Amino acid sequence: MARKPAIKGATAAGQPARPAWPAATGGHVARTVLIAAAAGLGLYLCYRLAVPFLMPLTWAVVLAVAFAPAHRRIERRIGRPNAAAATSVTLAALAVVAPLLFVVQQLVREAARGAAYIQELLAGSHWRTVLRDYPTLERGVTWIEQWLNPAELFGNLARWLTAESSSLIAGSLAQALGVVLIFYFLFYFLRDRRMLVRTAVRLSPLDGKEAHLVMRRFVATVHAIIFGTLAVAVVQGGLGGLIFWWLDLPTPVFWGIAMGLLAILPVFGASLVWAPAAVMLAFDGRFLDALILAAWGGLLIATIDNLLFPVLVGNRLRLHTVIAFVGAVGGLVVFGASGVVLGPAVISVTLALVEIVKRRFDGMFPRARPSLPAGPGRTRLASTP
User: Fold this and answer.
1) Computed from CA positions of residues 33, 38, 39, 45, in that sequence, does the dihedral angle turn out positive or negative?
2) What's the predicted TM-score (pTM) here?
3) How far apart (Å, rounded) are the C-alpha atoms in residues 317 and 347?
4) In a domain, 30, yes or no
5) With contact defined as beta carbons under 8 Å apart, do 115 and 154 qualify?
């Protein structure tokens, strides 16, 4: 019997042959190692290049996630990606920057008025009469007055703030290149978001489902941080406005709103309002009110965010409060202001990656399920081979 001719590309069993991998010669391995080393060096250099832009990149991503639903609606209405992204960036700037600029401008003006008021108090004799009931405090103030001349100091400060209030705002805008970069990056993150997601999935060593799992965890973390930040800002602003009203300070509603907006800032926050107010109360001779305001601000307003923020973020992400606290506070220590986002995001993404690794190991090495002894009303569970 004549033998049938062998079909090229098929095995003896009739199955298609697997494509042959290139021979792993010494030269091929060496070139691969060199390419991998060059890629690693390139990634490290890219990281060093991105470090100066860590803050604007982080907050641009946060704003992109926050404004993504509104941007999708704007994009459907306008139809043109560039115009839609420009419109969304403009709305984001108006919603975020304009209120903060207004509050900062009011703070500068009030600081000028406060400095002038303190200068008038120091020039008068009312506060000296009050200090006679506190001999120790009077000696300390007299020593400070001899060395620093506070009346002249606050007078010069008031005149400078009054003359330079407008230029301070303009100068801060001119120097805040990071703010400009935030909205510059935001434009491209909104316009090219689909391409960026596809590229990240394609370059990732994860498969499609795993990459989207990591992205969903990151987006959920950003949403939780936004919710927690706004909730804490409302609480801090409410507490600040409440104590201003109770101490009969002027415009408690406005200053409560101002403290709520400033509470979004991760460094000084609401203390930019209540701390100078406590100083003014002390210079006005209301020492008990000044002590109450300082204690309320330092012990409650300034610390409640460290207690409330991890709880809110942890509940949204289903993380333990201690883990959320370490992510939030540790992120501030490691990354600075951007750590409010990067700290919890690192923990959330890492937990997602650990979950993916566990699933893969479970698929490679399935564990046998324990079997129960047979008995009345009980069936034996077959162990998995």
Assistant:
1) positive
2) 0.68
3) 11
4) no
5) yes
Please choose, from the candidates 222, 217, 233, the residue with its C-alpha nearest in 3D space to the C-alpha of residue 189.
222
Residue 191 inside a domain? The answer is yes
Question: What tokens does 374 get?
Answer: 């047979």
- AA identity, residue 32: T
Residue type, 40: G
Q: For residue range 74-121, what is the model confidence (pLDDT) as tens digits?
A: 988 888 889 999 999 999 988 888 777 777 676 666 666 665 666 565
Query: Which two tokens mark 43?
Result: 């990634």
DSSP string, 63-93: HHHHHHHHHHHHHHHH--HHHHHHHHHHHHH
Buried b (16+ CB within 10 A) or exposed e, 146-167: eeeebbeebbebbeebeeebee
| CB-based contact 266:340 (threshold 8 Å) | yes
Do 222 and 268 fall within a single domain?
Answer: yes
Cβ atoms within 10 Å of 90's Cβ, excluding its own: 12
DSSP label at residue 297: I
List, in order, residues 6 or more apart from 207 with CB less than 8 Å away.
none
Whether 21 maps to a domain, the answer reads no
Residues whose CB is less than 8 angstroms from the CB of residue 49 and which lie 6 or more positions away in sequence, other chains included: none
Long-range Cβ contacts of 122-131 (<8 Å, 24+ apart): 122/150, 122/151, 122/154, 122/283, 123/151, 126/285, 127/283, 127/285, 130/285, 130/287
| Long-range contacts at 94-101 (CB < 8 A, ≥ 24 apart) | 96/63, 97/179, 99/261, 100/261, 100/264, 101/169, 101/173
Long-range contacts formed by 161-165: CB under 8 A, 24+ apart: 161/108, 161/109, 161/111, 161/112, 161/115, 162/112, 162/116, 165/105, 165/108, 165/109, 165/112
Residues in the chain where the model's pLDDT stays below 50? 1-2, 4, 6-13, 18-21, 161, 164-165, 169-171, 174, 377-385
Residue that is written with structure tokens 């641009």 in the block: 60
Sign, CA torsion 345/348/354/359: negative
**193 with 210, same domain?**
no
Indicate if 166 and 277 belong to the same structural domain. no
Nearest to 180 by CA among 53, 78, 79: 53
Which residues does residue 375 pair with via DSSP β-bridges, in sequence order? 378
